[in-house]
C-alpha cells in the first residue's frame, strides 16, 4: 500500500482531486482552430491548383466559415483566461518557446487573412446564393458589399488589393493555416508534466483530425456531386491516417517508460476506455469511415450523417484528450484531508 | 548563486508551521497555500508500515517548464534561480499550471497565477524564507549550492537524498533527505 495525503489543508479546487484548469472552452477552441485551418488549407490549395471554377464551394463558399468560427474561438479563449484585463499582454510579447504565444500570433494572422479571403470573392458568393434562390443570404452579402465598398471605403481598397494579389496571399494563408492546425496539437505537447500530451505525434494528429473535420464541413455544404465525392475520398484517406496516428500514439505509449504505460492504461481498462473507444473511435471515426466506403461503392448515404459524425468525433476527441491529459501526471496527486 | 532547499524527512513531524508562516508572511488568501505537507504511508500493517512527511512547495527548477510555456514572460527566473510571476504581465491562461509536475501553482482569487517565491524579499536581506525560519524541528535547510560551506551544500554531501519526479526533466532544486 502507498497512500499520499495532504495534511495541511490546501483546498484549491483546480488542483484536487485532479488538475482541472482548462474547461470546455479550450477543447472547443482547439476544434475550431483545426476546422478553420482545414477549410483554409483546402481553399488555398485548390485555388493554387487552379480548381476554383470546378470546386466553388471549397474555394469560395466554405471560407465564409473560418472568420466567423475563429472570432467565436477567440471569445472562448479570452473567456477562459482568469486575468482577462491583461489580455493585451499577449500581443506585446512574442516568445518562441511558448506555443501559446506564437499560436496566438498565428491565429491573429490567419483571422485577418480569413476575413479578406471570402470578401475578395463576394460577387461569386452573391451569385452562388442567388442561383440557389437563397434570397436572405443574398441580402446579407449585398449588405456587406455596400458596407465595404460604399461605407468604409478603405476596406474595399484592401479587398481589391487582396483580390489582385490573391496568389501570393493564398500561399501565405496556406502556410499559416498549416501552422495553425499543427499548433493546436503542439500547444498540448509542450506540457512535459502531462505524459499523455508530451508526445511528438500530437501536432500531426491534430492537424489530420482538423483536416478531416474540414472535409466533413465541405461535403456537407456542397451540392455539387463531384465535389462531394472528391471530399468523401479525401476524408476516407484522412481517417485512415488518423487511425494510424492514434494507433502509433498508444503503441508508443505502451512501449514507453513506466509513466506513459500508466497513462495508456487510462484508455485500456481505465476510466476513459468506454468513452474513447466506443463514443469516439467507433462512432466518430470507424462508422463515418464505413459510411464513406458505402457511398463510394454507390450506395445512397445521406451526407449529413457521416459529416455530423466526423465533426462530433473531432470535438469529442479534443475534449477527451484535454481532460485525460490533465489527469495524467508524473506524480500521484495526494488526496486532501 | 543557486538557491535550493533540503527537507529532512526524518525530522519533519508534519506540524504545518511552515504552511502557516508562509500564509502570514506572504498574505496568501484564505483557503490557499504556497507550501503544503504530504503524509506518505507505505507498506502493510503491522510489519512494514512506514510514515514520513514531505513539506512541499515550488521546486524552483533549473529547466522550469512553467517559464518556457508562459506566453508573456510573466513567469521568469530571477537571480539565484528563483522562479517568480509578475502579476501585471500574467493573463491567467493556466499554461504554467498545466506544465508544472508538482502542482505548485494556482490561480490567485484576483486571477493571476501565484506561487512560492522562496521569500526572495527576505532572502535578499540575508534572512531565511519564512517557512525555514519557523520550523520547530529544523528540518528545512535553505542556502546557496554554489557556496561550498553553506549548510545545504554540507548536508547534501553528507546525507542521502531523493527528488520528486526527476524523470519530468525539470532539474528541481528541492532535496528530500532520507
Outline:
The complex is a heterodimer of chains A (337) and B (178). Chain A has 337 residues and is mainly α.
Give a structural overview.
- The complex is a heterodimer of chains A (337) and B (178).
- Chain A is mainly alpha-helical and 337 residues long.
- Helix content of chain A is 70%, strand content 2%.
- Chain A has 13 helices and two strands; from the N terminus they run βαααααααααααααβ.
- A two-stranded parallel ribbon of chain A has the order 1-2.
- In chain A, helix 10 runs antiparallel to helix 12.
- Chain B has six helices and ten strands.
- In chain B, a hairpin with a 5-residue loop joins strand 6 (106-107) and strand 7.
- Chain B has helices at residues 17-25, 65-69, 95-99, 120-123, 130-134, 151-158; strands at 3-8, 36-42, 50-56, 75-78, 82-85, 106-107, 113-114, 140-144, 161-162, 174-177.
- Chain B is globular.
- Helix content of chain B is 20%, strand content 24%.
- Chain B has 178 residues and is of the alpha+beta class.
- Classes of the chains: A mainly alpha (337), B alpha+beta (178).
- The interface between A and B is large, with 50 and 52 residues.
- Strand 1 of chain A pairs antiparallel with strand 2 of chain B.
SSE layout:
The complex is a heterodimer of chains A (337) and B (178).
Chain A: E1 2-6, H1 25-48, H2 56-61, H3 65-80, H4 99-119, H5 122-131, H6 135-151, H7 153-164, H8 166-189, H9 202-221, H10 225-254, H11 258-265, H12 273-296, H13 304-327, E2 335-336
Parallel strand pairs in A: 1-2
Chain B: E1 3-8, H1 17-25, E2 36-42, E3 50-56, H2 65-69, E4 75-78, E5 82-85, H3 95-99, E6 106-107, E7 113-114, H4 120-123, H5 130-134, E8 140-144, H6 151-158, E9 161-162, E10 174-177
Parallel strand pairs in B: 1-10
Antiparallel strand pairs in B: 1-8, 2-3, 4-5, 6-7, 9-10
Amino acid at each position: 500500500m502507498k497512500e499520499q495525503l495532504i495534511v495541511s489543508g490546501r483546498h484549491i479546487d483546480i488542483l484536487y482531486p485532479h488538475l482541472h484548469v482548462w474547461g470546455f472552452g479550450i477543447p472547443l477552441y482547439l476544434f475550431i482552430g483545426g476546422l478553420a485551418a482545414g477549410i483554409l488549407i483546402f481553399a488555398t490549395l485548390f485555388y493554387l491548383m487552379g480548381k476554383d471554377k470546378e470546386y466553388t464551394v471549397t474555394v469560395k463558399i466554405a471560407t465564409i466559415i473560418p472568420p466567423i468560427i475563429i472570432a467565436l474561438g477567440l471569445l472562448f479563449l479570452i473567456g477562459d483566461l482568469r486575468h482577462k484585463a491583461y489580455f493585451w499582454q499577449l500581443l506585446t510579447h512574442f516568445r518562441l518557446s511558448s506555443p501559446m504565444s506564437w499560436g496566438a500570433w498565428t491565429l491573429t494572422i490567419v483571422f485577418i487573412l480569413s476575413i479578406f479571403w471570402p470578401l475578395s470573392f463576394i460577387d461569386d458568393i452573391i451569385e452562388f446564393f442567388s442561383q440557389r434562390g437563397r434570397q436572405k443570404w443574398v441580402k446579407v452579402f449585398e449588405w456587406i458589399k455596400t458596407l465595404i465598398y460604399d461605407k468604409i471605403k478603405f476596406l474595399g481598397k484592401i479587398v481589391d488589393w487582396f483580390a489582385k494579389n490573391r496568389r501570393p496571399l493564398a500561399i501565405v494563408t496556406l502556410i499559416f493555416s498549416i501552422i495553425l492546425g499543427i499548433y493546436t496539437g503542439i500547444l498540448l505537447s509542450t506540457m512535459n508534466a502531462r505524459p499523455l500530451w508530451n508526445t511528438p505525434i500530437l501536432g500531426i494528429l491534430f492537424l489530420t483530425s482538423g483536416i478531416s473535420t474540414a472535409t466533413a464541413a465541405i461535403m456537407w455544404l456542397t451540392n455539387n456531386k463531384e465535389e462531394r465525392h472528391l471530399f468523401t475520398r479525401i476524408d476516407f484517406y484522412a481517417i485512415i491516417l488518423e487511425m494510424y496516428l492514434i494507433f502509433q500514439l498508444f503503441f508508443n505509449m505502451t512501449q514507453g517508460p513506466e509513466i506513459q504505460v500508466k497513462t495508456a492504461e487510462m484508455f485500456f481498462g481505465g476510466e476513459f476506455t468506454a468513452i474513447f473507444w466506443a463514443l469516439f473511435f467507433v462512432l466518430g471515426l470507424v462508422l463515418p469511415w464505413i459510411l464513406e466506403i458505402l457511398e463510394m461503392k454507390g450506395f445512397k448515404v445521406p451526407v449529413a450523417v457521416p459529416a455530423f459524425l466526423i465533426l462530433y468525433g473531432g470535438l469529442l476527441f479534443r475534449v477527451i484528450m484535454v481532460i485525460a491529459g490533465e489527469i495524467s501526471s508524473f506524480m500521484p496527486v495526494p488526496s486532501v484531508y | 548563486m543557486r538557491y535550493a532547499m533540503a527537507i529532512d524527512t526524518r525530522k519533519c513531524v508534519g506540524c504545518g508551521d511552515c504552511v502557516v508562516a508562509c500564509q502570514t508572511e506572504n498574505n496568501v488568501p484564505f483557503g490557499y497555500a504556497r507550501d503544503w505537507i504530504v503524509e506518505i504511508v507505505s507498506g502493510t500493517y503491522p510489519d512494514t508500515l512506514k510514515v514520513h512527511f514531505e513539506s512541499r512547495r515550488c521546486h524552483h527548477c533549473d529547466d522550469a517548464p512553467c517559464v518556457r510555456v508562459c506566453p508573456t514572460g510573466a513567469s521568469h527566473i530571477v537571480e539565484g534561480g528563483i522562479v517568480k510571476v509578475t502579476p501585471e504581465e500574467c493573463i491567467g491562461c493556466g499554461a504554467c499550471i498545466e506544465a508544472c509536475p508538482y502542482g505548485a501553482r494556482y490561480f490567485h482569487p484576483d486571477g493571476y497565477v501565484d506561487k512560492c517565491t522562496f521569500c526572495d524579499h527576505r532572502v535578499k536581506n540575508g534572512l531565511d524564507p519564512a517557512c525555514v525560519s519557523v520550523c520547530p524541528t529544523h528540518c528545512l535547510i535553505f542556502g546557496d549550492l554554489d557556496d561550498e560551506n553553506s549548510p545545504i551544500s554540507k548536508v547534501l554531501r553528507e546525507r542521502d537524498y531523493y527528488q520528486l519526479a526527476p524523470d519530468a526533466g525539470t532539474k528541481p532544486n528541492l532535496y528530500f533527505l532520507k
